[in-house]
Write a structure and sequence with these properties.
Layout: E1 2-4, H1 7-11, H2 19-36, E2 53-56, H3 59-67, E3 72-80, E4 83-92, E5 95-103
Parallel strand pairs: 2-5
Antiparallel strand pairs: 1-2, 3-4, 4-5
Length: 104
Amino acid sequence: MKRIQCLTDLNNLAGDIPDELLNYLSSEFSHLYEYLSNGERIEEFLLENHQAILIVEDSKELDLLLQNRLELEYVEEIQLNSYLCLRIGISQLEDIQLHYYLRV
């Protein structure tokens, strides 16, 4: 599982995940920055552990995530050009933590 808590984490994913997903996650990170920042620059912005964006890489991890029905808020499919991605919201400390799983 990959964790995105800051802009550096996001930029380090370049080449590891498809560009379509990276662009989508960049947009999501920007939205979280706009909503949660306290005036710091985006380069200094850090998501709390329970707010981090997580990329699920293994189907077993995905199965475990989906089995926890009490914390599962939603599962939606996102079409990213030629890729299908699951966007999963998990309730964490009064927030929704975003998880992504790329179907190939």
